Amino acid sequence: MTNEETPTNTPPVGELIPPEEAIGMRLDTWLSRLPGAPSRNRVQQLVKDGNVLINGAPPKRVYTIEGNETITVDWPPPDDDWPWPQNIPLDIVHHDDDVIVVNKQAGLVVHPSAGNPDGTLVNALLHLFPDLPGINGTRRPGIVHRIDRNTTGLLVVAKNDRAMKSLANQLIKRTVKRQYLAIILGDPQWSETTVDAAVGMDPANRLHRKIDGPHARNARSHFAVLRRTGQFTLIGCRLETGRTHQIRIHCKHIGHPIICDSAYDGHLNRCLERLRPDQHALKKALVNYDRPWLHAHTLSFFHPTLQKTVHFQTPPPGDSRALMENLFGEVAEAISGERIVDL
Q1: pLDDT, tens digit, 9 for 90 and up, residues 79-92
Q2: pLDDT in tens, 143-178
Q3: Distance CA 125, CA 127 (A)
Q4: What b/e string do you get for 273-286 counting C-beta neighbours within 10 Å, with b at 16 or more?
């Protein structure tokens, strides 16, 4: 390989000639393994955008190294802190000149972080809305609030500084209304309850949260029973605050963790223990469900241009909805409802 001398924390520059051991590897795989190179997803985007040339010409999207090629790459600047636009499918419920309302799918992190440099909602939004950079900083352009990676449902993104300021102030004043659906273990003794318990870090696991853990901040959630079976309960959840994992940790705190939430005592075995021997279909549905059953169902906020409160609602995704209806029947189907955009 011939290249200019570069620090080990930056990828090689100049003309690259793959070594013999790279023959047969995918181009994007080999490039992403170079010292200081960005992630494979980002390399794939470089190829797609024409920033990678093989013998002076753009390669096919999927290219296998043959040997003796001359490869040139227009790497992003090493100090580039901007997220990379990526063509990731999104369900856009509404967008206008001020806001974007997204129905986030499970498995999608909201913004880049140390453990998730790309493949996030922000990367997907930048592909659809190139004007987002510059709003609310480099890593989180337009992001007003978040929901967990495996939580589905609604969140709002600001498209300009005026909308960002308006929505941020509404969150501070707690006038943004966010309501969730959750399925919890057991049969609580209350029909409605409020949980007021501060949420902080969990010293045993930096990815988890703990009641009254280090750096705890006040957190308040309102829960209401929507349907019971004796084994499981469907609840509505309304947030006053928006701490990380707030609903999940509050449900655990009151002894009714969210089903299939292995991080907070709702793991699969605890769910299966509650089944009767004849509940074969429900057992199969639970075994095939791989995340906490939590969905951001409704969202309301004051629109900065329309000068009125707007309301959005979206039903749970197909697998979540099927499990809910398996448990709670037609009542759950009525609760899930259809998508509503009320402007």
Answers
A1: 455 677 888 999 99
A2: 999 999 999 999 999 999 899 999 999 998 999 999
A3: 5
A4: ebeeeebeebeebb
Q: Are 105 and 154 in contact (CB under 8 A)?
A: no
- Can you give the three-state secondary structure of the chain, one letter per residue? CCCCCCCCCCCCCCEECCCHHHCCCEHHHHHHCCCCCCCHHHHHHHHHCCCEEECCECCCCCCECCCCCCEEECCCCCCCCCCCCCCCCCEEEEECCCEEEEEECCCCCCCCECCECCCCHHHHHHHHCCCCCCCCCCCCCCECCCCCCCCEEEEEEECCHHHHHHHHHHHHHCCCEEEEEEEEECCCCCCEEEEECCEEEECCEEEEEEECCCCCECCEEEEEEEEECCCEEEEEEEECCCCCCHHHHHHHHCCCCECCEHHHCECHHHHHCCCCCCCHHHHHHHHCCCCCCEEEEEEEEEECCCCEEEEEECCCCHHHHHHHHHHHCHHHHHHHCCCEEEC
Same domain for 296 and 257?
yes
User: Of these residues, 148, 196, 212, 319, which one is catalytic?
Assistant: 148
CATH number of the structural domain spanning residue 115: 3.30.2350.10
Residues 99 and 137 in one domain: yes
Position of tokens 């189907």?
333
Domain that holds residue 20: 15-73
Residue 161 to residue 167: CA distance in whole angstroms: 10
Q: Is 319 a residue of the active site? A: no
Please tell me whether residues 192 and 121 are part of one structural domain.
Answer: no
